[in-house]
Amino acid sequence: MHIELRTIDHGSQRYNTCGDWEILPDGSIRISVSDMGNEDYAFLVAVHEALEVWLCRKRGISQASVDAFDIEYEKNRPGGDFSEPGDSPDAPYQKEHQFATHIERQLAQELGVSWDVYNDTVESL
Questions:
Q1: How far apart are CA 26 and CA 6, in angstroms?
Q2: Which residue from 2, 29, 40, 102 has the highest number of Cβ atoms inside 10 Å of its Cβ?
Q3: Helix/strand/coil (H/E/C) assignment for every residue in the chain
Q4: How far apart are CA 65 and CA 63, in angstroms?
Q5: Does a structural domain hold residue 77?
Q6: Which residues partner with 33 through β-bridges?
Q7: Residue 22: which pLDDT band, with cuts at 50, 70 and 90?
Q8: Global pTM?
Q9: 34 and 114 Cβ atoms separated by less than 8 Å
Q10: How far apart are CA 34 and CA 46, in angstroms?
Q11: Is 12 a domain residue?
Q12: How far is CA 3 from CA 13, 105, 113, 125, in A?
């Protein structure tokens, strides 16, 4: 098993997202998190993405279907809408995203991170 976690400039993401996962041709996983200037925030996003990709992979939900949904969702996002693509009932990975968010929230509490401040930072990207 090989999972690479990295922070990158937000503008270097494959599309407008603070966290992205890719399953590479060799089967390894690369998780890219937008640099928010806070290691706890980056860790929270990375954990969310790691859980999501692992569950998707185990359940046969392809990266291609997730990417296509996310990109289309972002393209049609109305101004001022900060919802997550994975929260949509139409998302092919809604269950996996919801589980990852649940754990992310618990971890934020354990780290002493205010969910509201963290979420505002993510939405400001």
A1: 18
A2: 29
A3: CCEEEEEECHHHCCCCCCEEEEECCCCCEEEEEECCCCHHHHHHHHHHHHHHHHHHHHCCCCHHHHHHHHHHHHHCCCCCCCCCHHHCCCCCCHHHHHHHHHHHHHHHHHHCCCHHHHHHHHHCC
A4: 6
A5: no
A6: 7, 19
A7: very high
A8: 0.93
A9: no
A10: 10
A11: yes
A12: 18, 22, 25, 25
Cβ atoms within 10 Å, residue 117: 11
- Please give the pLDDT value at position 77: 85
**pLDDT over 90 at 80, yes or no:** no
Amino acid letter for position 88: S
Return the number of other C-beta atoms located less than 10 Å from residue 37's C-beta.
8
Q: Say how many domains are in the chain.
A: 1
Position 110, amino acid: E
Structure-block tokens of residue 50: 């790691």
Amino acid at 60: G
